[in-house]
Amino acid sequence: MHSRASQNPVKFFTLLACLLLCPAVGLALEPDEVLVVANARAKDSLALAEYYMQRRKIPLDHLVRIGANWKEHCSRQEYNDDIRDPVRKALARLGKEHRVRCLVVMYGVPLAIRPLDPQDNQQQLQRKERLQTLGKEEAGASGQRLVAILAERRQVEQELAQGEKMDSRAAVDSELALVLAGDYPLEGWLPNPYYLGFRQQQTLLKRDAVLMVSRLDGPDPDTVRRLIDDALLVEKEGLKGRAYFDARWPKPAEKKLDGYALYDASLHAAAEQIRAGGRMEVRLDARGELFQAGDCPDAALYCGWYSLGRYVDAFTWARGAIGYHIASSECATLKQKDSQVWCKRMLEDGAAATIGPVYEPYVQAFPPPDLFFSTLLDGYLSLAESYLVSLPYLSWQMVLIGDPLYQPFKPQ
User: I need a labelling partner for 282 at 20 to 30 A (CA). Which of 169, 242, 271, 366 fits?
Assistant: First the structure.
């Protein structure tokens, strides 16, 4: 015998997501649960933050002014000193009586953290100093003492080599999601405890240490204002248009899939779910080539793969449109004039929200399209909440761009 929840997995996942995100009431994100992070050293950042807070009626004391560089990439030390620490202080200032569940990172705040320079890594420096000390001790040692020194030297050399290989590159926003988590490993990714795919697994991170993070950013200030305005306008009547999913292969028969095959199957599943809901017209293309110019008029939703750093202008974006392209480094820049990465170009052409990685994320780090879009279309969770429960990993490469409060399918 099956329960109704098992018969309708989309409704079940949304209900589960509501309970995970807001166990007491199951309501969507509210403006007074948002903290806005703006860069006082970046032109237009504070003005855009104030504009957003006014439009969304976010309390004035929920603004954090940081003083970071205005480049898109920063060092780990710059992130710690100029971004992470001021946000931590602001959260401590607000205290538990002002519950903050979401951070909004504004135009002008660095986008990505560069790979860790071993010269800036205190542990690496300590290892190098220890090797120098052992070298001096080795010259005058003999017997068991010499054996011990050589054994320790091999161990320190191995640790030093491992540290130099450590991948600590990350999206600023993905690290900010863990600003309450204290110390945690920087190498690689950390499983997201809110991800519905991990709901029966134990994770290193606890849910109360994870914040939602979204970014209001783009090529220029006018684009950011449009993202804010479009979300508010579309919420009044709901997102209208068509859904486009660009798979590469026919729907697979087998159930156990991974890698690109799993995500291609997820594109098929997303198309089927939205079509079954009857909310909008759906086009699924399972041919090898991508959508081409003129193929996608009135696009409200989109997901596809794989055109690396080469946006294909196939779309006329509906106001409030949401979509993402599954490929590496598609959010590596939002400012470089001639860049054709998908996040930047989708925003330039009229989309209101998108998702992308700042470096190489590996395909399994993307939100599965069927989970992300089905949760979003069910309407009870905001954009940021739908992203959080469909995002597999944190302290990693992925960025959400758009108003986190946006509910394009809010129940009327």
Answer: 366
